[in-house]
Amino acid sequence: MKHVKLLTLIALLAVLALNSCKKQEKIIDGAKPEDKLPTSAIVGGSYIDISNIPYQVRITAGTNGGGGVILGERWILTAAHVIDGKPLTAITVYAGSNSLNSGTSYGVDSVFTNNYVGVGDNDIALLKLSTPITFTSNVAPILYATSADYITTGEIGVASGWGQTSGTEDVSSLLKSASLKIYDLSNPKQIKAESITTPFESVCFGDSGGPFTIQTSRGRVLAGISSFFPVGDGASYSASCVQGKSGFTRVSAFADWIKEKTGIVSPGMNGWGLFCDEGSYSLDNILPGATFSWNVTPSGAVTFSGDNTATVTLSKANNYKGWISLSGVMTVPGLTTTTTTRSIWVGKPNIVIKQTKAVWNDPNMFYTVSADVTPSGYLAGIQEYNWTITDQNNNIYTMQTSLPYINFTEYVFQVQLDVTTYCGDISLRKKILLSNEGL
Question: The whole model's pTM is what?
Answer without folding.
Answer: 0.59
